[in-house]
Amino acid sequence: MSLNSDLTIVLDVMGGDHGPSITISAAIMAIKKQPNLHLILCGDADIITKNLARLKISPEQLANHKQLSIFPTTEVVLMSDKPIVALRNKKDSSMRKALDLVNEGRAQACVSAGNTGALFSMAHFVLKNIPGVERPALISSLPTHDAKKRVFMLDLGANVFCDSHVLYQFGVMGSVMAEQVDGITKPRIALLNMGEEAIKGSDHIKMAALELSENKDINYVGFIEGCDIFSNKADVIVCDGFVGNVALKTCEGVARLVYQKSKTAFSASLLAKLFGSLIKPSFKKLFKTMNPDQYNGASLIGLRGIVVKSHGNANASAFLSAIEEAIKEVERQVPEKIKNSFEHNFTVR
Amino acid sequence: MSLNSDLTIVLDVMGGDHGPSITISAAIMAIKKQPNLHLILCGDADIITKNLARLKISPEQLANHKQLSIFPTTEVVLMSDKPIVALRNKKDSSMRKALDLVNEGRAQACVSAGNTGALFSMAHFVLKNIPGVERPALISSLPTHDAKKRVFMLDLGANVFCDSHVLYQFGVMGSVMAEQVDGITKPRIALLNMGEEAIKGSDHIKMAALELSENKDINYVGFIEGCDIFSNKADVIVCDGFVGNVALKTCEGVARLVYQKSKTAFSASLLAKLFGSLIKPSFKKLFKTMNPDQYNGASLIGLRGIVVKSHGNANASAFLSAIEEAIKEVERQVPEKIKNSFEHNFTVR
């Protein structure tokens, strides 16, 4: 097992609705695209071996493979497992061991399509928060009207309720993420609210606005409404996990509805069918991006290690996107940069 | 001024971004469609007279008009007015007087495209809650995958935070609304949450779920996620005003994004342009329905009178839809039915 590769990422291959059939296909796609990438396949050794054989990689080839290795585990966290039960009882699960490998420095990031609640609890327990971070958050990105720009949004469901200081910290972490991963100088940070006026919203949102506007390292641009999430008025949108989860899933719902209605329109006549077949791929891509954790994965930030969550229902190309997201975060050293930012922010505050 | 018509609705003609030029055009469209409708045009008499003249109704014709009359006022609530200031200082505004006329029984409903916060505060102050109702709510409807069904959603922004009993009451009011206005027997009531499982979400949502499931008059069907708002799994979706506002405005944002992207696709080639011109009307209509307060208006329910809020940016046909929504609620006696339901629910609980 070569762990001296430039870049080592561990995959929880057992997670997700489709498990190894998807995750291992994505792994092969990833190593082909990135020659300096080493992937540790964490899970049931027999199942992994069989799936590799299906993809024309024999046990002999694996033994000498420079980019692939197996870390065998005996348990699997099920989609139906309660987080607390998984955390207590499944210490030899593929998910838990993948996180342990990140914690031990044997991998630089972990990618899983497994049970979100369990992954969040385990990651929090194993990797611990970056000093000063009160709550880790789930972050992902959505498309905007400007084809070249995306907008990060957090928290997407890791924390049901967040007080003003936690929202403030999400702003700081989101700023680092947009700066490092998308190379944006002074990312525009906005708070999701029910109106743009300063008098709108709950007290904790108003307090968070005050805290963000007082930090000179943060380019706080004010409140933003749901209708402007995609308007490229901000690079990072901050909200609590309940609101973020509802907003994100509403996007998915609208996209599905419009897709269904457009399919009906595209089958109305021969001309419509012809045109529909031309336009469908670009529409399909747009609708996929409206479901970002399915498309790019969502990252848990605020922890001492990198954890990317792919959608439970992800296909191989979506899981590949999640691996690529993890690679970016490793290359840009996102946890390290958040740590620096928090050290700096805690001395100046 | 004939106030003995079967159906009398008062319009705050000064409200909205476009004011009388839109609201009075919509009024003329409404009386043409509904011969037993009487509309009271509440606002600046000179401006109203000029706008009626533009639409070929002379002062002489108005004096004897069976369906139109003016209620002159001297003040206007501006979109920028703070609710509390409007409530205290603008007692002769078109908005306030329109609500007064409903309170005095001289009109059966009020329609306004004015400042939402001010309308909500004034309506609450003038009309008062139905006995037993803790908080009035803003309700509107969204399209579903089933072209013949819509889904009501409340609260859409009248109340930032709602405790469990307030959410429960929203469920009861929403049930009455769906039953009366859309004729649904035993409407399916769901709570918007970040997961379908019973363990998900905040304590007040879990408590509201318990309260709703214990009321045998309510067909409570459980939690629903944002992605299923449009899936026709519920007839009424209940949430607090912050979450509802974000969800609703996110729908509008996604619709705008998809519309922009599809316009780009529709202009890519000659064939695309040709097909685009064929398909655009049906797309446009769908996107409009994703912005329901612009399309149908949103109603304030839980008050002793009927108040329908049209979007500030509504055009004449959208303001007409809001008038038609008000007519429906008058015909089905929604406040009376909510009152009965609350009396019944408070004796059985």
From TrEMBL, chains A, B:
It comes from Colwellia ponticola. Catalyzes the reversible formation of acyl-phosphate (acyl-PO(4)) from acyl-[acyl-carrier-protein] (acyl-ACP). This enzyme utilizes acyl-ACP as fatty acyl donor, but not acyl-CoA. Coiled coil: none annotated. Homodimer. Probably interacts with PlsY. One of its GO terms (cellular component) is cytoplasm. It holds the Pfam family FA_synthesis. The keyword Cell cycle does not apply. Pathway: Lipid metabolism; phospholipid metabolism. HAMAP family: PlsX (MF_00019). It catalyses: a fatty acyl-[ACP] + phosphate = an acyl phosphate + holo-[ACP]. The keyword Lipid biosynthesis applies. Belongs to the PlsX family. Its EC number is 2.3.1.274. GO terms for molecular function: phosphate:acyl-[acyl carrier protein] acyltransferase activity. This is Phosphate acyltransferase. It is found in: Cytoplasm. InterPro entries: FA_synthesis, Phospholipid_synth_PlsX-like. GO terms for biological process: fatty acid biosynthetic process; phospholipid biosynthetic process. Gene3D superfamilies: Isopropylmalate Dehydrogenase (3.40.718.10). Keywords: Acyltransferase, Cytoplasm, Lipid biosynthesis, Lipid metabolism, Phospholipid biosynthesis, Phospholipid metabolism, Transferase.
